[in-house]
Amino acid sequence: MKDTAARTRRAVWARANSAVLSVTTRLKEGLEEAARRPDRGDISTTTVIIWVAAVTGAVLIAGTIAVVIAKYNGKLSGL
User: What is the pTM of this model?
Assistant: First the structure.
């Protein structure tokens, strides 16, 4: 019975060491990649400005349509 427990313990340690080595290697590769290419794909200021303008325009158009419908709701019911 002691042999089985020892083998199990060794197998668990081997698997844990393998996982730690894998994570360490992956982290090291990621840091090397970040050092080589400092541009991480961050969103540029221009992109943010374009998105804000598009959303603002869409909200203004939807608001205008809602106001016009509310104002002329009774007159539009006969169409």
Answer: 0.44
